[in-house]
Amino acid sequence: MNPTLLPQKILVPIDYYPLSSRALEVALGMARPLNAEVHALYVWAAPFAQRALTGAPGHHLSNTQLPNLFDEVRHQCEESMRQFLKPLESKAEGINLQYSIVSGEPQETIVKFAREGGFDWIVLGTHGRAAIPRWFLGSVAQSVVRQAHCPVLVVPPIER
């Protein structure tokens, strides 16, 4: 971790929703004056992806079908990432913007990826459901804030 607290490597976990786009914009804004690297990370949970692609709860795939399923999910995630990043190309100009797509439990995977990748900051969006009591929120953002080895900037939704 960078001892000055000025980020050189910023991790931005995304879920392809507008709040992730906002978090990525904030990270790009932080990175530009510091010449920092920004890394978008999408984590997909394999059991949920399998269920979504097979369309039937409890449907089991054979060992020969599973690699094809993972390849298909990975391909779809890659395409989604390209589409997600496309509108931000002009804002990312001149910034080292990378991305990764990995499978796992989002909370644990984000924290582990940040630590192992030597990231100085994590910037992520939150859905900010103010009507739900704080004790009820078991969100990814809350878990990452608690477990991260580095500072975490949580970007709230824009008030309407």
* Number of helices, where a helix is a run of at least 4 consecutive DSSP H or I residues: 6
Class based on secondary structure composition and strand pairing: alpha/beta
Provide the spatial order of strands within the biggest beta sheet: 3-2-1-4-5
Shape: globular
Main sheet record: 5 strands, parallel
| DSSP E strands, number | 5
| SSE succession | EHEHHHEHEHE
Strand content is: 15-25%
- Indicate the mean pLDDT: 82
Helix residue percentage: 40-55%
Cα-atom radius of gyration:
17 Å
Regions with little confidence, pLDDT below 50 for 5+ residues: 130-138
- Cα end-to-end separation: 36 Å
Q: Quick gist of this model?
A:
The protein is an alpha/beta fold. The chain has helices at about 20-35, 45-55, 65-85, 90, 105-115, 140-145; strands at about 10-15, 35-45, 95-105, 120-125, 150-155. About 45% of the residues lie in helices and about 20% in strands.
Folded structure, characterized:
The protein is α/β, with parallel strands linked by helices. 44% of the residues lie in helices and 19% in strands. It contains 6 helices and 5 strands; from the N terminus they run E-H-E-H-H-H-E-H-E-H-E. It has helices spanning 18-34, 46-54, 65-85, 89-92, 106-116, 140-147; strands at 9-14, 37-44, 97-103, 121-125, 152-155. A 5-stranded parallel β-sheet has the order 3-2-1-4-5, sandwiched between helices. Helix 5 (106-116) packs parallel to helix 6. The longest helix has 21 residues, at 65-85. It is globular and about 50 Å long. 21% of the residues are buried. The model is unreliable at 130-138 (pLDDT under 50).
